[in-house]
Structure formats: C-alpha cells, structure tokens
Amino acid sequence: MSDRNIYKDVLLGVAVGDALGVPVEFRSREELRIDPVVDMRGHGTHNQPPGTWSDDSSLSFCLAEALTEGFDLNTIGQNFVRWHRKGYWSAHGKIFDIGGITWRALSRIHSGVDPATAGDDGDWSNGNGSLMRILPLLFHISGIPEKERYHLTAQVSSLTHRHIRSVISCFIYLEFARYISMGMDKTEAYRSLRTQTTAQLASFRISEVEIGHFSRILKANIHDLPEEKIRSSGYVVDTLEAAIWCIMKTKSYSAAVLKAVNLGRDTDTTAAVAGGLAGLLYGYETIPAEWLDVLARRKEIEHLALRCEAIRQRQREANQPG
Fold first, then answer.
1. How far is Cα 91 from Cα 300, in angstroms, rounded to an integer?
2. Which of 278, 320, 214 is nearest to 13 (CA)?
3. What is the pLDDT of residues 174-216, one digit of tens each?
4. Closest Cα partner for 53 from 62, 252, 251?
5. 160-192 in b/e burial notation, b at 16+ Cβ within 10 A?
6. Residues 162, 117: contact at Cβ < 8 Å?
7. Residue 306 CB contacts under 8 Å (≥ 6 apart), including other chains
C-alpha cells in the first residue's frame, strides 16, 4: 500500500458509509428489507441533503486534523469541542446528531476537565461513540510496539468513552485495520486478529470477563453467523461485530457498506465503521463515483487526506536507513 494515499481510502471510506446511513438511521431491518438502501439518498431521518455525513465522520476528521500536528490529547479534545460548539468539520456548518455520552464528555472538556478523564467509564457507557471516530489513529500508531498502541488507543477512546470495553473495541478494530494496511487480505487479517490480538489482550492482563465480550470475534468465526444473529444497535460490541461481519461477508466497498446500512438501527455508524475498513481494503477508487460526486465537502476531505499522507511519507523517509 506504499503507493496509495491510504488516508484518502480511510476518510472517504468512513464518510461515504456514514452518508449512506444517515437518511435511514433508526429504521428497522424489517423496514429496510422492504425498502433497501441501494444508492445515496437524502432527507429521511435527519432531513439532510444527499451526501451528508454525521458526527462519525466529523470527529474522524477532527482527529485526523489534530494528528497532522503530532499526537497531543489536548489538541484532539479541543478539535472535538470546536465541532460540538461551533460545527467545526461538520457537513454543513452545524451538528445535527450527537450521542449523550459524547455530549457530556465534550461539555466537560469545554469546562476545563482534563481530556484524559473526560469520558464516562461506567458499564452503561459503552456506546459506539469512540469506535466510530478512531480509525485515523491507525497511521500514527501502526509502527510502534503493541503496548504503546494500546495505551494511545485507550487515551483517544477515553476522551469520550473510558470504559475498558470501549477501549478494547477500538484496539481490536485498529489491529484488524493494521493487518489490512500491511497488505494482508481480509481472511489473513482476520486470522491474525484471532491469534495475535487475542494473545496481546491477554498479555495486557485485561480481565477474562471483559475479553469474553469479544468471543464471537476472537474465538468463533464471526462470518459464520447468520444475519439474524448480528445486532446493529449503538452498543460498541454490536457495532464492531457487525462491521467485521459485513467486511467478511462481501467482496467490494459498495457491497460492504450497503450490507451495513441495511442491517438497520444505527445505520450511519455501522456503515462508517465498516466503510473505513472497506476503503482501506479496496481503495477509494472503488467507491462508486456517483456517491463521491454528492459527498459533502469532498474536496476538503481530500485535501485533509493529502496533508495527512504528506506527513506520513515524510515520516517513512525519515525512518529509512541511510
């Protein structure tokens, strides 16, 4: 993947999946079987024009933007607050969708609370609000040791979601993406996830009870499950399972994100999380042109991706021997 702008793959992959899901958020699987999403729609749940993405993409862009200046948790947190308060990196200048846990955390950061402890850490606070925006962190952590990868992942998740289950979800997602970014096909990447990542989590001395929440991914083959066993709620484990299931059950970007959307309920986030992986796996060039043509702020997203990629390339060159 050294010749690809994988930031473009990821950022456009997330945003297009998100935008496909926005108009039908909260609709049931049964409703979508009758009227499935097959193309980019507008209006619907949030009455937004076609190509509008939500908080999933906005916060992903805020994270990517912050990382162009290096890793600083305060910068990331302040970018998130700018989105919350002023619509920074929103699709059309103002926000229309925010989870309660994220709202509380960003309000705390705005009031001066340390971003490292701003997120809720109760068992009830395991929504998918940190998983949906974590993928740009991949390129900052991909070349560092596993314990450091986990530590930085925990920090970025904890800005809004500090419970260990949300952190583990983000770590598993980023490790799966990391294997794909190394050039593995999805089968090899999933095999590595089940062996290497399982061993990593055990080495971090995380409780077996918490790791057990991920047994359908790490011990079973998630793609062997029928659709009726896949949940698409806002619970972080459900979203992670559904996104990986969609990747493993399909063979293209469009098929993966449409399958994610048509699972129903938290359609935008499931498709954003799956879309980031699918963009990385297949490349942004495979995203249908008619979807990209209506994507809100496409040129600005591409410019952000170019800036991020330029920094990644400079880092790669600096780390080469001689």
1. 11
2. 278
3. 999 999 999 999 999 999 999 999 999 999 999 999 999 999 9
4. 62
5. bbbbbbbbbbbbbbbbbbbbbbeebebeebbeb
6. yes
7. 5, 7, 8
In sequence order, what are the beta bridge partners of 235?
A: 127
Q: Token match 């309920």: residue?
A: 265
Cβ contact 56:132 at 8 Å:
yes
> Rounded to whole angstroms, how far apart are CA atoms 215 and 222?
9
Alpha carbon dihedral 155, 160, 165, 169, in 10-degree steps, equals -70
Q: What is the dihedral of CA 133, 139, 141, 145, to 10 degrees?
A: 140
C-alpha distance across the termini of the chain, in Å: 22
CA distance 321 to 51: 44
pLDDT in tens, 19-61: 999 999 999 999 999 999 999 999 999 999 999 999 999 999 9
This prediction has a pTM of: 0.97
Asked if 129 and 101 touch (Cβ cutoff 8 Å), the reply is yes
10 Å CB burial of residue 214 (0-12, 13-18, 19+) is buried
Contact 101, 58 (CB under 8 A): no
Residues 123, 91: Cα–Cα separation, whole Å: 32
Identify which of 123, 191, 118, 205 has the alpha carbon closest to the alpha carbon of residue 156: 118
